[in-house]
Amino acid sequence: MMKKLINNPDDIVRESLEGMAIAHSDLIKVHLDPDFIYRADAPIKNKVAVISGGGSGHEPMHGGFVGDGMLDAACPGQVFTSPTPDQMLEAAKQVHGGVGVLNIVKNYSGDVMNFEMAAELTVSEGIPVRNILIDDDVAVKDSLYTQGRRGVGVTVLVEKICGAAAAVGYPLNQLADLCRKVNLNGRSMGMALTSCTTPAKGSPTFNLGDNEIEVGIGIHGEPGRERLPLKPADEITEMLALSIIDDPAYSRTVREWDETKGDWIELELTDPTFQTGDSVLAFVNSMGGTPVSELYIVYRKLTEICEQKGLKIVRNLVGPYITSLDMQGCSITLLKLDDELIKLWDAPVKTPALRWGR
Amino acid sequence: MMKKLINNPDDIVRESLEGMAIAHSDLIKVHLDPDFIYRADAPIKNKVAVISGGGSGHEPMHGGFVGDGMLDAACPGQVFTSPTPDQMLEAAKQVHGGVGVLNIVKNYSGDVMNFEMAAELTVSEGIPVRNILIDDDVAVKDSLYTQGRRGVGVTVLVEKICGAAAAVGYPLNQLADLCRKVNLNGRSMGMALTSCTTPAKGSPTFNLGDNEIEVGIGIHGEPGRERLPLKPADEITEMLALSIIDDPAYSRTVREWDETKGDWIELELTDPTFQTGDSVLAFVNSMGGTPVSELYIVYRKLTEICEQKGLKIVRNLVGPYITSLDMQGCSITLLKLDDELIKLWDAPVKTPALRWGR
Question: What is the ipTM of this complex?
Fold first, then answer.
């Protein structure tokens, strides 16, 4: 029997959005049918609007990141299901401040397709749009719902950094370049101690033995690199961290909307690899069911490994920010920083889930 | 087999503290043996030092609440085990700013006894001390580890409010009065969907059937009021909320240190009950394993019930703040507010787990 604090499984996204809107009415509003969360003070005139979205079940991402200094709107699908193009279109119309919209899109086939359709619809309304793809998960190439690498932890960081950049007046093209750069500079890998249980299915999404972990898991329970016997936290941390740090340069072709051509173009992009001496942001994330006390044990070991590898952790984030319902486990994200990114990371932010400096 | 991100179970408190100290070195420092977390900039001269502590396993409470505008120090015991008097004594000596120490003590027999011993030791070092008891859990009177009511969710709120009051210069006696008032003004009740698993035992602390919930659970898995079949979130929310709102006045005798007599005195204290027209802070807390999306479903229903009962929710807190390891479930706390408490709640705070306004 599924044990969750829910009513009818069909109502959980709407009821959760309604509760969130009441709890944070100073920061956000919720539009239902089509569903999107938006800044209470939107549109912000002459600021590029930053929009993201994706399946529900990863809270606080994305709705918890709507507010001053981060997202203008977030479009939640049903649990682990892509939002539809009308959500992104209506959100764009609601929050557009006159100088365009940046869509931050995690690399899942449904999200990519629907955000591309949304971009075309939005452009046809006379609103300039850029879609930038996030594909930072080093675990596997091509997965259950993905061509190429999945978009995971870097999404949180990119939403903070691009939100800050939009707030200080980056124009759309520069903001798209920044978003692409953050994605290329960041890498992630996760692991699961347990499965998650979706409300629609009501039973665990996949089966893990009592003594098994899945290393390289996706945020919907997609298979990772390997299934291993349970190990001490330090060994798990080392596996994840070294997979990220030692990963060779990764090349992929992405589609982006070209405003001047009025059509999609293809770009060939390659990551920079981590180098001794790099400054990084280290992000240790809970998959949902893992308590923060265990994340600090992972963070402790991660700092040792980064030091051995010559990486200097100059900023960090530890907590549940991109989750998989009740899954136990964690992910690690490392993001190579420069002065621009540090300044934007440190800028004030005021959202339900991330707040500092103001 | 116990699935956690830990190394040797004996090391988890120390390793977690070390990771936390590295992650938040701008805010806190950690002293080991005896263990306590303290403000990086302590002692703050001429400010009353606010200290709390208790068993580990309830993170982010208390260590996550150390910082500007909240606690000066937190003393963590082993998991679900009281800290020892030498921890509180050494913490007091480290953070004492010359005008006394307020100890915020959750009502568990071990905590009460050890904080009383600590108070006597601290007084003998020439440091004025007040211990104030938190006992807000309406579920049961006398429990596995408690005489009277257990101390739960109000602890988080009292630490924020008293931390803010200390920061603006409340002297020790006035701060103790405020702390006592917040405790009397607040009430909580929790429920569990699942048990938690302590690292020492390695298996669930108690057994709940596949279709059972425990209503009135304690934060260490202590038995609640009743075991019931699983219900929709709205019904569970209504049970918890009405238990809190309709609870009759509760009287108890508490022991407090009397500085002028140099001895313990007994005080008879009675709660005010909730009345139509009251302004309240509504706090929906995750027991650890329950995702924030479900907390918003609970919060949504809670606002309906409060409205029906004539209570005006003017502030709220939704998230995992006083947890029981990986337990799934939630608790609700309502705190009657007045202008003084609202002002102190809104004051800036900068800690690992709560941060706003600065």
Answer: 0.97
